[in-house]
Each structure stands twice: as C-alpha cells, then as structure tokens.
Amino acid sequence: MGIELDIADVLEEVGVSFTIERLGVAVDDVIEYLTYTPNSQVTKPFVREHFLECVIVAETQVLNGDVITFVESGDSYLVMNNSPDFFEDGVIRYLAVLYKTNVLIDIYHPQNTTVGYDTSFDFQLMYSAQKALVSEPLFGNIEAFDENIGTYNLEKNQLYLPSGYGLEEQDRIVINGTTEQYRVQTVIQRRYPNVIVADLGEDTRA
C-alpha cells in the first residue's frame, strides 16, 4: 500500500524515540518512534501531565499493557489502548492512549496463618520496583453529589497496572523507596485491555 511506510518515515524523522518493556522486562533491541498530542480539552493539571494521545507505526511491537520509555526524557508511560487505524482494509498506523507512570511499586501476596482466634500475615514479595500509575488524594478528592445525602468526597487511591502481574484483592502494594503501603481492595479487570485498575486503601496489617 505504501501509506504505512510513508507514515513510518515521517515518525522516524520528526517523532520521539522510545523503548518497550513488558512486565518489567525490556523488549531487546527495539527502538521505535511516535508523535504525541497532550490532551488540550481539559483544565486539570494532573490530566494534562499524565495523559497523551499518540501515533505509532503500523509495524509496531507495542501491545496494550506495555510500558514505553522516551529515550531522551526518560519518562515512562503505560499503554492503555493501542488501536489499529485502517485504510482500504490495511493497517496504516496505530493510535494509542498513554498514561504516565509516577511510581515504582513492590507487590506482595499475603499468606494468612490462623492460630486460635488470631490471624497473622506473611507477605511474599512477588515483584519489585515495577512502573505504575497511582492517583492519590494529593491530586484532589473527587466530589460527588447524591440527592439523598448531598455533596460528599470520594477519596480514593487508584492503581493502574498491566494485568499480567496477576494482582489480587488483599495484595499489598508498597511504594518503592518509601514507607507507604496499601491494601488492594478491589481489582477491575475489563475496563482497559490488558490493564487493571485497583482501588487501594490503608494497609495496617502487621
């Protein structure tokens, strides 16, 4: 067809180079190019900073749930959606939505032990220093309205992470290099392809 080759040439000439990671492991010897557009339709600084729409070549190795890192800036982004763009039944490019990662996390799985009425927790480290996005109350509470009780705050920590890690409810998330730790309260599996959204709460387990 040729159109996809023309697009690839343009992206390599004017685009941003990036590398690819899949579940924390680099895809060897791969450097690709994209062009991106910040979301200009919003006024929230967090959205402006963290969400990008981009164009990637038709022959890309990028998959939903991968993490890509811009070579020049070192910024890393979680690929939330990577959809083919067709022309005359052929893929000429991919259109992707990226969420910027802002933390490294350690993932622990609990092994519960019950003696009498007492339950203790033995946490097994499953993954260490994995790139993720955590949206915290630091960015502002979500204000909602219910006609029965009026206005109230929904103060939630939400984690965005590739689904391949197999995150489960009751897992422990530790922000790498800090003392912050959270309990995974709910895991939403099908909102995004190959990406989960997890609600996090305070973890006071010993």
What is the third-level CATH name, the topology of the largest domain?
A: Thrombin, subunit H
Structural Rg: 20 Å
The counted number of beta strands is 15
Assembly state:
single chain
* Number of helical stretches of at least 4 residues: 2
Structural class estimated from helices and strands: mainly beta
Largest sheet: 6 strands, antiparallel, barrel
Output the helix-strand order: HEEEHEEEEEEEEEEEE
The fourth-level CATH homologous superfamily of the largest domain is: Protein of unknown function DUF3599
Shape descriptor = elongated
Domains (count): 2
Helix-residue proportion: under 10%
Distance between the termini: 61 Å
Name of the CATH architecture of the largest domain: Beta Barrel
Mean model confidence by pLDDT: 85
Strand content: over 45%
Poorly predicted parts: 137-154
CATH class placement of the largest domain: Mainly Beta
Main-sheet strand order equals 1-3-4-7-6-5
Which helices and strands occur, and which strands form pairs?
Layout: H1 3-14, E1 16-22, E2 25-26, E3 32-38, H2 45-50, E4 51-57, E5 67-70, E6 76-87, E7 90-100, E8 103-115, E9 118-135, E10 142-146, E11 150-154, E12 157-162, E13 172-175, E14 181-192, E15 195-202
Antiparallel strand pairs: 1-2, 1-3, 1-5, 3-4, 4-7, 5-6, 6-7, 8-9, 8-13, 9-12, 10-11, 12-15, 13-14, 14-15
